[in-house]
Amino acid sequence: MSEPIPVIVSGVSHLQTDFTDSMRELKQLALADQLKPVQEFTQMLELVNHKTYFGQGKVQELKQLAQYHQVDLILVNDELTPAQLRNLEKDTKLHFLDRTELILQVFSQRAHSRQAQLQVAIAQLQYQLPRVHPSGNPLDQQRGGGLANRGTGESQLELDRRVIKQRITKLKHELKQLQKALTTQSKRRRQSQLPQVALVGYTNAGKSTTLNGVLDYTKQTTAKQVGVKDQLFATLDTSVRTIKPPAKARFLLSDTVGFINKLPHKLIAAFRSTLAEAQNADLLVQVVDYADANHEQMIDVTQQTLAEIGIHDKPMIFAYNKADQVTHEPAQIKGNTIYYSAKRLQDIALLIQLIEQTLSRDYVQIAVVIPYACGDIVNQIQANLTIQEQYFTAKGTYYRLQVARSQAAQLQPYEIALTDKPMAISSFHQ
Q1: Which has the closest alpha carbon to 268: 113, 86, 107?
Q2: Do 421 and 407 form a contact (C-beta atoms < 8 A)?
Q3: Same-domain check for residues 355 and 225
Q4: Which parts of the sequence are annotated with region: Disordered (predicted)?
Q5: pLDDT tens, 264-282?
Q6: How far is Cα 86 from Cα 77, in angstroms, rounded to an integer?
Q7: Deepest in the core among 3, 4, 323, 414, taking most CB within 10 A?
Q8: How far apart are CA 64 and CA 70, in angstroms?
């Protein structure tokens, strides 16, 4: 592995109350992109300079600081406009990477599935389109190299932009075709009649560790665990597992991509389909890094991002992970909140208990008669639902079930009144 590239992390406060935390997060993003922060450079301004982001005097000061540290790459804590980027590079002869492009690069490195790779590539190209230079490789995704040179004419610039637009169109078409198959998989999961629970939250809060902990507690040794790393955006692809608690109703649990402050809008749009599991979920579990002093702000960012992708008013559990680093008290449940450690199985047991209690509030009792010709529906009921009573009638199999309202809606064509019990051919109770 090559040595990390030294960089200066920089930013303008423009009256952000969370500016210090945001700069700290920028350093973490740099490390995730194999960059090595060697110096921090900040300026306190009410508004950023629309031409050069920093004030003119600060631009020259930054240039001298970069020469002193022998640094060629500057990270900026906001998204630069194309004009700001051009002016900064022209005035300093340095390369600049803004927060948006840095996040896109980290996502590019973490993308393993074809879907994630396509989503990131589209977002990168959309970001590059207004910033492409008249010469060099317009599809170069790693700035600071080929895109730094200034070129010749407008015709070449338009040609480069046309190439990018054509590439975006091609990738979007491929993504659309891929998403058809993924939508079919998601539809099958909804038809399974199982309640769907989605883990959401800030990046590196412990969602994947929580999912693995649930698999360990339920002794599902054959279920594939998800990768866990102590780094930002270790997980980009949604993972879904069927959870089988002892003597309890089963449910689906999904691990989704983490959020971060100032997550690029283009990236949110690109990953909208990846977050479909959260949109379709019956219950959200927001995993929070309780040991992080900024966890309340992280909750706000998560709530805002969920709202941006159209998720409103869903039942939610707040799961404060890493509580063992904050207090020596055992895990505890308070209303719809749990304080726990994803690495302690006894804590995971409490989390599962809270999930089951929350899901059960939306449960109803129904009676259905499933025609004998509908063997697939019978199989789904037998495999996934809590059966309270079952017997055979002249028209089909009678079931009295305890189900979530969403499950009841799917069985509505076969529903009868609970008091209207048809005559049995043979009967047995479970």
Answers
A1: 107
A2: no
A3: yes
A4: 133-153
A5: 777 777 666 667 778 888 8
A6: 17
A7: 323
A8: 10
Based on the fold, state whether residues 349 and 218 are members of the same structural domain.
yes
Query: What pTM was computed for the model?
Result: 0.74
40: helix, coil or strand?
Answer: strand
Contact by Cβ (8 Å): 33, 109: yes
- Domain holding 72, by residue range, is 5-110
Task: Sort strands 337-339 and 397-404 into parallel, antiparallel or unpaired.
Answer: unpaired
Q: Is residue 171 part of a domain?
A: no
Residues in the chain: 430
For residue range 151-210, list pLDDT tens digits in order: 445 567 788 889 999 999 999 999 888 877 766 666 665 555 678 899 999 988 999 899
Structure tokens at 139: 């599809």
| Strand order from edge to edge, sheet including 239-243 | 239-243, 251-255, 196-201, 283-289, 316-321, 337-339, 332-334
Evaluate whether residue 136 is within a structural domain: no
CA distance 48 to 13: 8
Statement: residue 147 has pLDDT above 50: no
- Structure token pair of residue 257: 């991509």
Residue finishing a domain among 360, 385, 406? 360
**Structure confidence at residue 183 (pLDDT):** 66
If one counts the domains in the chain, the total is 3
Residue 175 maps to a domain: no
Confidence of residue 1 (pLDDT cuts 50, 70, 90): low
Residue 149: pLDDT band by 50, 70, 90 thresholds? very low
Q: Does some domain include residue 143?
A: no
